[in-house]
Amino acid sequence: MKCPLPLPFKPAAAALVLLLAASSLPAQDWAKARLEASPRHHEYVHLKHGSRTVEAFVVYPEVKSKAPVVILIHEIFGLTDWAKEMADELAAQGFLVVAPDLLSGLGPKGGGSGEFPSQDAAVKAVSGLDPQVVTADLDAAADYGKHLPAANGKIATVGFCWGGGQSFAFATHRKDLSAAFVFYGPGPADVSQITAPVYGFYAGNDARIGATLPATIAAMQAAQKKFDPVTYDGAGHGFMRAGEDPANPLPANKTAREQALSRLIKLLAAM
Q1: One digit per residue, pLDDT tens: the chain, 271 residues?
Q2: Which residues of 95-130 are buried (b: 16+ CB within 10 A; e: fewer)?
């Protein structure tokens, strides 16, 4: 269950990847069931900027004190049940999570991710998003989260797959981030404007993203920016989702997920 390449694709290989993605990512009933069993408060909010309205899924932690805010950036598949279940899992650790649906208003009936008839259609829509609109959507989510009464003023981005690349890119724009967390996503071309520390989580068996990592490390070092990447041997791209999928038999994905989640929680708590 790997995230396919953003469009445009390289024909034969990409067609196969999309076919596999569509067939291996059904309703994610296991993620939906876990989400429905959660005791935490979930709500959908509408965030407006300019003429655009973005729907976001918000999960509150069960804590007494004010909490750091995590802006969760979904995979190339859109705001799926897994992305929402991941948001709930982070809230269980004491963080206030805002997960914007970056496909808001782009569905066949004017809705968001849930309206697309197939994963293929959602992938194409995410791949075609305007980067400036994505940045504005994430700004709206960050502004909303930061000013919630339950928030302590600290914000971080956590992105997966396509969203990992967006988390890295957003760090070049947003100066009040406490940290950016990048799960198997590429780095931006220009890192000179980054002010927050960036933490990377990469799969050992991920040739496409792994091939970009040396250049990203070099660019961050040259710009004197903090970048702390960790690669999990034996894991494949998308291990945070695959590692908890009951149908995925690869132990390395499960191990990588457990180790990466533990690291993420410690780093978020230390902000």
Answers
A1: 456 544 433 333 333 333 333 334 444 899 999 999 999 999 999 999 999 999 999 999 999 999 999 999 999 999 999 999 999 999 999 999 999 999 999 999 999 999 999 999 999 999 999 999 999 999 999 999 999 999 999 999 999 999 999 999 999 999 999 999 999 999 999 999 999 999 999 999 999 999 999 999 999 999 999 999 999 999 999 999 999 999 888 999 999 999 999 999 999 999 9
A2: bbbbbbbbbbebbeeeebbebbeebbebbbbbeebe
Alpha-carbon span 234 to 203, nearest angstrom: 7
Whether the CB-CB separation of 126 and 92 falls below 8 Å is answered with: no
Place of tokens 């059904």: 26
Max Cα-Cα span within the chain: 53
